[in-house]
Amino acid sequence: MTDSRSGPRGTADVAVIGGGIVGLATALALAERHRKSVVVVEAASEVGAQQTGHNSGVIHAGLYYKPGSLKATLCRTGLELMYRFCEEEGVPHRRCGKLIVAVSEAELPELERLESRARQNGVGVRRVPRAGLAEIEPHAAGVAGLWVDDTGVVDFRRVALAIRNRIVRMLGDRAIRTDSRALAIRRTDGLYRIETTSGVVSGRALVTCAGLYADRVARLAGLEPSVRIVPFRGEYFTLRPEAAHLVRGLIYPVPDPALPFLGLHFTRGADDVVEAGPNAVLAMSREGYSWADVSMPDLVDWLSFPGFWRMGLRHWRTGVDEIVRSLSPERFARALRRMLPSLTMDQLEPGGSGVRAMAVDQDGRLVADFSFVEAPSALHVLNAPSPAATSSLAIGRYLADRLASA
After folding, report:
1. What region does 168 belong to: left with phi over 0, alpha with psi -120 to 50, or beta?
2. Longest Cα pair distance anywhere in the chain, in angstroms?
3. DSSP per residue, 48-80
4. What pTM was computed for the model?
5. pLDDT class for 281, splitting at 50, 70, 90?
6. Is 391 in contact with 71 (CB distance < 8 Å)?
7. Average model confidence (pLDDT) for the chain?
8. Do the beta carbons of residue 184 and residue 195 sit within 8 Å?
9. 3-state SS, one letter per residue, for 308-337
10. Contacts of 185 (CB under 8 A, 6+ apart)
11. CA 177 to CA 45: how far, in whole Å?
12. Which residues pair with 275 in a beta bridge?
């Protein structure tokens, strides 16, 4: 295999912008499957610093997504690749399953729809009657449930580091360049030249996996994407150690089919810490992990985009509810008690937060599926929300194969 330092003027076969789990997985697939030299450029000082390192750590089974969609197919392939990779690299993980709970009779039709969709997507599920809920989660309350076999938990930041280490073993440590924010991208003489904060990187082909900055980086490369990335912050509480017994595994609600979020849920992670959340609050910055994080350039960017206003008009009631829950821990706890009635406020403590990069189109719709756009000798990932971490190794293979066959 050719080292990433080879070629004229140190040019790699492929330059990858973005050192999150999707960018790293794509670089790995290019190296392993297609014998390409790669160089990954990442703005932060470490890989997996943004969405990868701030999510709930759930390996999703793939039941929520439209049959035949990229999310459905890549999630099903990706979860098995993820479990296999974790075994190979010694990354702690657990295939534990999860319970989706309908808390009222009104939610039963949507639970049935989920069960049908799961079977269409090849996901192993079984219906759980009211009496059976206590056998799985003794403290959960509901009228029925759906047990999902393949769901698991892992620390995706550790997965990202393991992918990085495998790339470095193959190509050398210069294949990963951190502290290298992309400032400009030019294509001359058949090469992509990326000006970064640490110097110029060149590649014969380009893949951008910039997450929260996906639309901006695509514009740097000369595209005019029709979508805009709008960030939503997800905030968590954790159950205090003395209350962690209230949750054995993963407890999820029946989601609102009109929104791409799964609702407040409980997750016993790979470290056995139980998290409760996340909500979905519009963030005031692309890296808005708290209310104090405000970026005027980001706000101007969204406020000048017609799709942002149309999205707001469509979902303003939900947006107001999310803000209230964010500012009122008691309201947050009240929402959690729908599934876990015995939970008290003093059993919760503030946890971390993450930011989801959601693509919004001109009509104000949240883009439902993964979105990948081709350009000459280039591929741009414009939308890769959940289950992107679960699907990352499959996404990487999909993008690498497309780029190699172009």
Report:
1. alpha
2. 68
3. T-STGGGS--EE--S-SSPTTSHHHHHHHHHHH
4. 0.95
5. very high
6. yes
7. 94
8. yes
9. HHHHHHHHHHHHHHHHHHHHCHHHHHHHHC
10. 192, 193, 194, 195, 206, 217, 220, 221, 222
11. 9
12. 238, 267
Task: Match 């070629």 to its residue by tokens.
Answer: 7
- Which structure tokens are listed for 103? 């808390």
| Amino acid making up residue 317 | R
Distance separating alpha carbons of residues 262 and 256, to the nearest angstrom: 7
Yes or no: say if 148 and 124 are a contact pair by the CB < 8 Å rule: yes
As given in the structure block, the two tokens for residue 295 are: 């970026």
Rounded Cα–Cα distance for residues 400 and 393 (Å):
10
Owner of token pair 């519009």: 282
The single-letter code of the amino acid at 232 is F
Token representation of residue 184: 């400009």
Tokens of 396: 């990487």
Give the whole-angstrom CA distance, residue 227 versus residue 372. Answer: 12
In whole angstroms, what is the distance from residue 72 CA to residue 225 CA? 24
189: left (phi over 0), alpha (psi -120 to 50) or beta: left
Cis amide linkage into residue 278, ω under 30° from 0: yes
- Give per-residue pLDDT as tens, 54-102: 988 999 999 999 999 999 999 999 999 999 999 999 999 999 999 999 9
∠ CA 46-394-354, nearest 5°, is: 40
Which residue, chain included where needed, has tokens 């692309």? 286
Q: Which of 68, 56, 19 is nearest to 41 (CA)?
A: 19
